[in-house]
Structure formats: structure tokens, C-alpha cells
Amino acid sequence: MEPLLDFLSTFAVQFQKPTLAFLLGGMLIAALGSKLDVPDAIYRFIIFMLLMKVGIGAGMEIREANFFDLLAPALISVIVGVVIVLTGSATLARLPGVRREDGIATSGLFGAVSASTLAAAMVLLEEEEIGFEAWVPALYPFMDIPALVIAIVLANLYLQRTRAKAPAGQSAANGERVRVWPIVVDSLRGSALSALLLGLALGLLTQPDRVFETFYEPLFRGLLSVLMLIMGMEAWTRLMELRRVAHWYAVYALVAPPTHGLIAFGLGYVAHLTTGFSPGGVILLAVIAASSSDISGPPTLRAGIPSANPSAFIGSSTAVGTPIAIAVCIPLFLALGQLVFGL
């Protein structure tokens, strides 16, 4: 009984932390009808700054890391991203009232990664003084890209089978073969991944220590708090869109993040036992899996599955999935990690 009480106490305490408080505050003022508006340019600049900081820090750490230490977590990330999409395609996409391509697109977005959730989890781990390998954020594309690729390919193959009589591997709309490489390139060119990969390259190949410590590091927490406020307001707005589609999307968005996180936590724990992957790394991996893309994923899926309804996959992610990932899954896996690893 005592471990359970400790777990619940740790979980509840996290809601007092600034990161989660700003998210809930944004939802509250939006619900009260506030006219507060943060320009989209500022939102994108904040995302860029946060991902540059995360990428540079990860790149600097990778310089000193053992390649084989990265191998198991990277492989786990790929597996989790693929499993999330396949599971969503076999469950959500087959429920009554859910169009198959909409369900597949939603599972692809939930298999992809949220940069904001990643940044929030890093801050909370640091506040709890739980260490993790600085290269863990570099796992982002290993989960994000396979999930988006698999979702787009599955959706197009489904549309091909149902709308046109064409050989396997061709799209329904125009008979052209579904090509994977352009999807990968498009994902890499997305604003979020581009910023993260640029930061990784700078941290790995140059000596950015001074600018990192004097510029990016001091701004990180303040910018993150503003981002959480913006996302809280956006989440409340998207709830109205989600009401226009099947309620199964809301159910999926509630259940999927903790389920996906538990899968990653379990595999991460195996990596901890076999390779020494840190407890903080396991927690962060679980949070990455629990997140759903809110920046680079939507435009990639819009282009790759144009017939899918954005209100379904973007609404379920932004209105429910991201708030659940940040406000529930981060404290949940933090508390679980402290219980399992005795932190």
C-alpha cells in the first residue's frame, strides 16, 4: 500500500511544477473566453530555440558517447514507432464511424514525436535531479520518421485497394507507386526535425559550448513556459473541432499515450538491464513514445494522406493527446520510474 501512496503523491506533486501549471493555465484562460493571442511567428521561434538547445546538447554528448550505448535505445525507438502505427491501424482504424485513412493518419501522428513534450519532460527530470544521457533527445527521429512513413504507406495501400484496381504498391488517386524515400526526405525537411538535426550537427561537429551555456541554456525554461501556455490555449480550441468527428478519437487520444509510454518503458527497462541505459533515459523514452507530433507531423500527413480529415488526426492529438502526454504521462512515468528504480 505504501509504494502506491508514494506513487500517487509523486504524481500529484508534478502538477505544481511550472511546466504543467502553464499548460493548465492556458487551457483555463481559453475556457474562460480570453482574447489573449500569441502570434504564430513567436510560437515557431520558440519551437526553433528549444529544439536547437536540445539538439546542440545532444550533439555535444554524442561526441563523447559510446556508439553501442546508443544502438539499443535507437532500435527500441524504431520498434515502438512502428508498433504504435500498426496497433492503431488494427484498432482505431477499424472502429465503427472511423474512416480507415483517418484512423491510420491518427495512429501515425501518435507514433510521431512532440518536441514540446520532450522539452517539458527534460525540464521536469532536471528539477527532480534525475540524470539521463544527453543524447536521448536524438532518439526523436528514430521513432518519428518510421511512424510517419508506415502510416502514409498503409493509408495509400488501403486507398489503392478500395478505390482503384491497380497493382499493389500504387496509389488510388493516380496509379503512381507509393514511394517511401520522398516521405523520409519530407519528414527530415520539416521545421521541427530540421532544427533538431541542425543542432545535433553543430553540437557534434563544432565547439558551441560557450554559446550553448550563455544563450540557449538560460532561455530554455522561460521559453518552454510560454510554449506550454500557447499549447494549453490551442488544446482548448481544438476540442471544439474534435466534437465534429467520431468520439472514438477522443477515447483513443485518452488511452493511447499512457499505453504507448508503457510499451516504451518496458522495452527501455530491458535496455537498462542489458546495456546500462539510465533510469532517466528510460523515463524520457517512455514520454517520447507517449507524445504525439504537434509540429512536423501534421503537414507531412496532410501531404501524404490528402483524403484524411485533419480535424480527426490533428484535433485528437492537439486537443487531447498532447495535454494527456504532458499533464498525465510525464508525471506518471516520472513516478513509475522513481518506484521501479528507487530514485
Structure commentary:
There is one protein chain. With 343 residues, the protein is mainly alpha-helical. The chain has a single domain, classed as Na+/H+ antiporter like fold, CATH 1.20.1530. It is 77% helix and 0% strand. It is built from 14 helices and no strands. Helix 7 (140-163) crosses helix 8 (180-189). It is globular and about 55 Å long. The relative contact order is 0.20.
Distance between the termini: 18 Å
N to C succession of SSEs: HHHHHHHHHHHHHH
Identify the CATH architecture: Up-down Bundle
User: What is the subunit organization of this protein?
Assistant: single chain
What helical percentage do the residues reach? over 70%
Please give a handful of descriptors for the protein shown:
343 residues, mainly alpha, Na+/H+ antiporter like fold, 14 helices, 77% helix
What is the structure about, briefly put?
By secondary structure, the protein is an all-alpha fold. It has one domain (2-338): Na+/H+ antiporter like fold (Up-down Bundle). 77% of the residues lie in helices and 0% in strands.
Record the SSE blueprint.
Layout: H1 2-13, H2 18-31, H3 40-64, H4 67-90, H5 100-111, H6 115-127, H7 140-163, H8 180-189, H9 191-205, H10 209-242, H11 248-275, H12 279-290, H13 297-304, H14 310-341
